[in-house]
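PROTOCOL LOG
Step 1. Enter all chains and additional molecules of the complex.
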Amino acid sequence: MLDKALSFLDGSPRERAQHTVLVVEDEVIIRMMLSDVLRRYGFRTIEARDAHEAITLLQSRVHVDLVFTDVRLPGSIDGLALARFLRQTRPELQVIVTSGDASVGNSFDGVGVFLPKPYNPHQAAGRVEELLLGDAQR
Amino acid sequence: MIAAKPLDAPIQTVLLVEDEVIARMMLAEYLRDCGYKVIEAAHTDEALVVLQHTEIEVGVVLCGISKTGSAGGFALSQWIRSSRPWRQVILAGNHERSADAADELCQAGPMLSKPYEPKVVLDRIKLLLATRSKTTT
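Step 2. Run joint prediction.
Step 3. Record the structure below.
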């Protein structure tokens, strides 16, 4: 049981810390909780409240491996548009899109992995692990 | 090189309110490297949401004074001092805007100038937390 509880620590801390997750979420408590859990899993995490902030960060020299974005965001660009933009401009990035609207999961084939809301932060961190650590986890 | 915090020291939480995302990210990372837990708020409305969650223990609020959100940094500072007086607040901004806003709101408080000097911010946070620790013991 303890092994299972601690299984999230598999993989070296150094390997995890080399991966940066950009969390794009306008609900500050959700963003804080998810970022906090991802940091506990050993990932470097940076935060944006909308797509414009996310693009500003991505256009800076900050290294990002995975973008985790909510669909519903304030401003003129929603999470789906952000995911499509990243697919065209930064195809090397992994993208997870989350929404409370399950039908969204069918409408963005090829631009990311869909995670329905509400999600447990640990469940979200598990998806991040699968995408970033992949074979190293198995 | 950043000095490590003593192992038995409690982790203090800093609520960083800053609308410039690059400045917010860089300062948050610096403070985390120094051993603090940092909650990032992009504007004062987000900060109020965090502060109204009483189970979230915030030691220091570091707030830029720009007017993003429904309230500016000075208004947030006034709200904290009236409703959460045990919390420490640091305001940051460029001098001209700070002077104008302070004049408008008759607000006094510890000020930092922008752009942020991370070491100066760190020293101010340490000083405030030490002061609070003395007054509560």
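Step 4. Note key features.
The first helix of chain B runs from residue 21 to 33.
Helices of chain B lie at 21-33, 44-52, 73-83, 95-105, 118-136.
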